[in-house]
Amino acid sequence: MDTEKALKAAKRKKRILILAPLLLFGFSLYVLILPVVVSGESMMNTLHDGDFAFVSKTGLRHVHRFDIVVINSKKLNEKIVKRVIGLPGETIEYKDDKLYVNGTYTKEDFLDPSWMTYQKTRLKDKLYTHNFKVTLGENQYFCMGDNRLNSVDSRELGPFERKDIIGKGGFILFPITHIKSMNQ
């Protein structure tokens, strides 16, 4: 009888030793990583509709210009993927497809010129990013999709607050042909 109890206790202990690391790993993933499926074409030609990514929930204290972020949009009642263009307290202006931050021209190297030309031609538009100017308040971030002619972003939704940004960077994992870092 004592041998039978000892065997059962040993089996229980073995199960716990196997399950504990798995549960810890799963909890760590839940706390550190946000799985995201890109929906729509607003981040083309950088990200594509249906791309599956793991996005980091860490490092959100340091959000920089041009970071790709996941935002919890209250107005749309969904999570959206956009790029940070403007930081708190800045004046952002687009004039003739050029970005000016506090009056200084800022190059957007991540934009694909051939994609921009294709989109402007296809949609019969002269500008890829229509002219506008906005000044951000404290704790406000101006975020836009890379596909400027097909993106609902801060131009329509207004600036986002720091607490709305729930993930940044990460890796596209699927489809295999799109595997890459989302860190700019």
TrEMBL record:
One family name in Pfam for this protein: Peptidase_S26
Keywords: Hydrolase, Membrane, Protease, Transmembrane, Transmembrane helix
SUPFAM superfamilies for this protein: LexA/Signal peptidase
Major localization listed first in the record, in broad terms: membrane
Compartments, as annotated in UniProt: Cell membrane; Membrane
Major enzyme class: hydrolase
CC terms in the record's Gene Ontology section: plasma membrane
Any Gene Ontology biological process: signal peptide processing
Active-site residues from the entry: 42, 82
Known EC number: 3.4.21.89
Domain Peptidase S26, residue spans: 18-173
Catalytic activity: Cleavage of hydrophobic, N-terminal signal or leader sequences from secreted and periplasmic proteins
Coiled coil: none
Topology term for the membrane: Single-pass type II membrane protein
One annotated GO molecular function: serine-type endopeptidase activity
Annotated transmembrane regions: 16-38
PANTHER family: CHLOROPLAST PROCESSING PEPTIDASE, SIGNAL PEPTIDASE I
Family stated for the protein in its record: Belongs to the peptidase S26 family.
NCBIfam families, per the entry: sigpep_I_bact
Name used for this protein in its record: Signal peptidase I
Organism, as annotated: Intestinibaculum porci
